[in-house]
Design a protein that fits this description.
single chain; 154 residues; alpha/beta; Ribosomal Protein L13p, Chain: A; four-stranded parallel beta sheet; two-stranded antiparallel ribbon; 5 helices; 6 strands
Length: 154
């Protein structure tokens, strides 16, 4: 019997809640594939959310910048790093590194996953049409941080 594979459509899912639930799934020995990473959301006003992450992007080492920390601005890598932070002491435990390799995050939906059954994480999803809360799509945040989306060939 093989490992269970879980497909999650990140559209309108809050990044933090999504990250914790996915980390738990990974630790339960499941393969997790996240689709539409750019449509995940952060709650809050656009300016405040962007300013918080711009401040975070300035964190670096003064001795040798090539040693890190490395901050990704591409939505799939950005989300993957948030999930990695939810795993127990990533660099200290071999299990966390092994588990992390079972995670795949994609911008959009690749052709091979078009018909896959997508799961929704109930406590992580928001209703954007209600107008009750302000939010920022991960795509817009990453663009504000310097990401330039690649154009698809016509």
């Amino acid at each position: 019997m093989g490992m269970e594979t879980v497909y999650i459509d990140a559209t309108n899912h809050r990044v933090g809640r999504l990250a914790t639930r996915v980390a738990k799934m990974l630790l339960e020995n499941k393969n997790v594939i996240i689709l539409n990473a750019e449509k995940a959301v952060f709650l809050g006003e656009f300016k405040k959310v962007v300013q918080r992450w711009k401040d975070w992007m300035e964190i670096r080492t003064l001795t040798n910048p090539r040693r890190g920390p490395f901050h990704h601005v591409r939505p799939d890598l950005f989300l993957k790093r948030r999930i990695r932070g939810m795993l127990p002491s990533y660099w200290k435990h071999k299990r966390s590194r092994v588990v992390f390799r079972r995670l795949k995050v994609y911008i959009g939906v690749p052709e091979k996953f078009k018909n896959a059954p997508k799961q929704v994480i109930r406590d992580a999803i928001i209703d954007p049409s209600s107008g009750k809360c302000k939010f920022v799509y991960l795509k817009d945040l990453c663009k504000a941080l310097g990401w330039t989306p690649r154009r698809e060939p016509v």
